[in-house]
Amino acid sequence: MSDDLVPDDLWERIAPLLPPRPPRRHRYPGRLPADDRAALRGIVYVLRKNVSWGDVPAELTGCSRVTAWRRLRDWTEAGVWPRLHEVLLAELRKAGLLDMDDCAVDGSHIRALKRGAHTGPSPVARARPGSKHHLIVDRHGTPLAVTLTGGNRHDVTQLTSLLDLIPRIRGLRGRPRHRPGRLFADRGYDYDKYRRILRARGITPKIARRGVPHGSGLGKTRWVVERTFAWLHQFKRLRIRYEIRADLHLGLLQLACNIICLRRLRTSF
To answer: What is the pTM assigned to this prediction?
Structure first.
């Protein structure tokens, strides 16, 4: 089996976080369950290649299509992906690769081919069903938090939710870090109400003003979040939403963010 899909460094971090399997029956135990690493191969294969779950190649991944989908469901419901994210962010902070003094936030539209939770008429696709990824990153573009909403939700409505989702990042002595120093955003976040909310949290808002000519210079720092969206869309499954269940699409999105964090961590080795 190819380990290009699930490298050793990814597996070593995720294996301790997986929920234990239920004990097998002594009588009529049935077939042995598929290996967890093989199931993760199937999940990552779908995430990267954007094949349907029915087309997951068992000869390459070592698991069936049903097993891969079920493990994604079970691990998403168990909260594996956010816990893995917290582990990776702590390692990044310990290695000096996390810089939260300057952070950036933005949203990105995607089409939703099927109805489900967190879909809505997209204003950029002639009111076709769509969803939206909302993302906050550090100075280097490392994902700190991500959410999923309907395509008709305004970016600014998810600002406080994203800030609340940033975990308390350990890795160094002292109090965990969970708050940006300065937050950069485009004109879609230009509301005095949210500036006051940021200042009340001890965050300095750096938000472009509507009606002001371009050239504020904020884009020199804010561009990293757009680059991170480009990284996420290299995972072909995230370009269009196929999952009816919103939590499963969000689980794939969180897994992709974890892989991006791991790539960043590899630069310290």
So the answer is: 0.92
